[in-house]
């Protein structure tokens, strides 16, 4: 809390910023890291928590968009494959190659041999950076992945892409932390309330959502990185842009591990869209749905849950079909898709991709980012640096590389210290990996500070919240360096505890109140009560913050239900895009 309050005081001290970024999702985070690292005086504000909307609802996949092969958007596929490779190279502990095993049924529109040939083209577009594709027989699949129902299948193929070993929100947070290390002044739960251009400066009204305090910040340039809320922000600033967003809702269900093998099981659902079972440590993430919506805070419905369960059960051979009792948690969010801001009928969803678009008013120093995805994030940061430079902002360190893991010498020093103190002996028996590996992946150079906590007090290496891998020292680290403002910031975004543990298990953990005391001090009970008041368990299932309550069987509570019914009809006509999350 001290870090956040200190940054708010700095934002309110009357200084003029080179660039103020509104929105702390992946686009805003990489812009802050890129600009601050290159020597720009940057402020970053987010009305909720960092990565609090779209950026915490992805499939955790870093992939080149193989689906765009079918629509012949080869330029985009090439660009995304190169971006994927770049992230694998510079974030080897976090972004890792993973195999996708795809099963094709008799009724599918393409033969497996044709799709397998396409994976070779895809591999070549990626410069042969990953392992080569494979065409296994059904008997091989029955032996390697007996969980797959091969009865209706006519073939399978396997290829490589990448995924985030941790969670997407943590990936975003690390860019925010990198930006702050380079001098960026960032604060969560700070809302932009108004914009006015006076002379050469923007005067931006800000409000601390937690305290109600209001003030004005002056900045030479502005970046609107508000994701699904970008259009609202542009309207507030009276900016008319070439692009706008249409929104698509997607959900995932988290269940116990379906297969011990570290690979993505991919299928085509009843509408012909890709459908995944993705490893998540000792859990599996399955989904997704894609439903056109007008609501940036769209909620999960019973139909969504039924759709995912029906599809996964039809494609797996389980001892007992998955049902609602097997759901540990859910994810529900919207994907903002960039379209031309023209009058008339929306573009056909088949023509949409997640490629980002950037609109700018050079004379007034205003930039709007539309769309985007985790895979392409480094390019977004670089493009914003170039644009800000054209607006007259001095880029003092143009050659500085602002992204990637620390140099090998830092990594080697961490693991050397970890070996000397026999850190991995503290690894819990239920953990999915050695403690040293996990700490380095999550905290990089800052993990050395965690070693100091443990040397001072070995109890700091103990798991604090039962059923998770998070140790006491990590909670201390979060309290000091990670701007934890509400309990859900820690449980859902800085960690993935609320994704992989049932809500009641978390609540009953003997260590949770101690964690709250470390994070919030004398506000511990207040934050504890607030979290469980705002996130009640419905039908035994925990939902993502902001996703709304899970309805009872047969009910719906999505404000865009009418539009969903229209979308169902569009699917039958074949004009709904194969989107992925």
UniProtKB/TrEMBL annotation:
Biased composition (Basic and acidic residues): 560-574
Domain of life, per lineage: Bacteria
SUPFAM superfamilies: FAD/NAD(P)-binding domain (SSF51905)
Domain Alpha-glycerophosphate oxidase C-terminal span(s) in chain numbering: 431-506
Keywords linked to the UniProt accession: FAD, Flavoprotein, Oxidoreductase
Region of interest (Disordered), ranges: 538-581
Any one GO molecular function term: glycerol-3-phosphate dehydrogenase (quinone) activity
Domain FAD dependent oxidoreductase positions: 18-337
Co-factor(s): FAD
GO biological process: glycerol-3-phosphate catabolic process
Protein's UniProt keywords contain Phosphoprotein: no
UniProt similarity note: Belongs to the FAD-dependent glycerol-3-phosphate dehydrogenase family.
PANTHER family assigned: GLYCEROL-3-PHOSPHATE DEHYDROGENASE (PTHR11985), GLYCEROL-3-PHOSPHATE DEHYDROGENASE, MITOCHONDRIAL (PTHR11985:SF15)
Record's protein name: Glycerol-3-phosphate dehydrogenase
Species of provenance: Kushneria indalinina DSM 14324
